[in-house]
Specification:
This is Thioredoxin. The chain has 286 residues and is of the alpha/beta class. It has 14 helices and five strands. The model has no long low-confidence stretch (mean pLDDT 92).
């Protein structure tokens, strides 16, 4: 199997530049193999075919473990074939054995951007700018051009949310493909839906604030105020209100305050604010 621009043999000397550094430019699929390994020989032509078919969207790097034993040991290779996928200088996923072509294709597709992903980004930009009609047109185009892109389901949920179809969006998010269920944007969307639902039929923010000023023990008003604060981007104030509510009325709407704090953590991801309020939440719990 001759090397090509998308299929290369790597050694300990070239691994850093080709695999680790190269994975910042595009994903690198590393095939750890040996000549004596029959499943390795079965797998090689499948990987080569896919590397050619994907036209440079990933690089296939081959490591002969008989010749590169130290390299195989460094990456914990204990059975052959083992295929690891590298992104941004790190191995992020792997499979072992000579899988069927369809399963390998699914493995690759989980990590490699599709051409239609750019259209999804444009649809998200439209939604961020309040252009629901523009986002709808882009999602329809993706459905027509690339119906296999599982991420279009997420865009459709974002559209439902923007249109105020909260019940439909909540139902749809539970039916997302398993590989999307725990992605950061899905977790964030769950949080947005939680707070949007809290404001369904709610009084105005001014009225909620007035209600809470009259009665600081009004759990519903405090929870609704935190939802308004989330949508204004005042996450610290929202977290403080939810923490207060959790301490005063843990049973409110089936532990809604704690769940709301977790939803904000998902919205924000990481950072000092999340770390501080996660510690405060744990102290309040225990």
């Amino acid at each position: 199997m001759a090397d090509s621009p998308d299929i290369v043999t790597v050694t300990a000397e070239t691994f850093q530049s080709i695999v680790l550094d190269g994975s910042f430019e595009r994903p690198v699929l590393v095939d750890f193999w040996a000549d004596w390994c029959a499943p390795c020989r079965m797998l090689m032509p499948i990987l080569a075919k896919l590397a050619e078919e994907y036209h440079g969207r990933f690089l296939l790097a081959k490591v002969n473990t008989e010749e590169q034993q130290a390299l195989a040991a460094e990456f914990g290779i204990r059975s052959l074939p083992t295929v690891q996928l590298f992104k941004a200088g790190q191995p992020i996923d792997q499979f072992m054995g000579a899988l069927p072509e369809g399963q390998i294709r699914d493995f690759i597709d989980r990590h490699i951007p599709r051409p239609s992903d750019r259209l999804l980004e444009q649809a998200e930009e439209c939604l961020a700018n309040g252009d629901i009609a523009g986002a709808e047109r882009l999602v329809e185009r993706i459905r027509a051009e690339d119906p296999e892109n599982s991420r279009v389901a997420l865009a459709e949920i974002q559209l439902m949310t923007a249109r105020g179809e909260l019940g439909e969006a909540t139902h749809a998010i539970e039916r997302l493909p398993l590989e999307l269920a725990n992605e950061p944007e899905v977790l964030a969307l769950r949080g947005q839906l939680r707070f949007a639902a809290a404001l369904t039929d709610a009084p105005s923010e001014a009225d909620v604030t007035a209600d809470l000023a009259r009665d600081p023990a009004n759990s519903l008003a405090r929870y609704q105020l935190s939802a308004y604060q989330v949508f204004r981007g005042d996450y610290e104030a929202a977290l403080e209100n939810l923490l207060t509510l959790m301490r005063r009325d843990r049973a409110f709407q089936d532990d809604a305050a704690r769940k709301g704090m977790l939803a904000i953590f998902d919205l924000l991801g990481t950072g000092d604010l999340v770390a501080r309020y996660r510690a405060k939440m744990m102290n309040a719990l225990y």
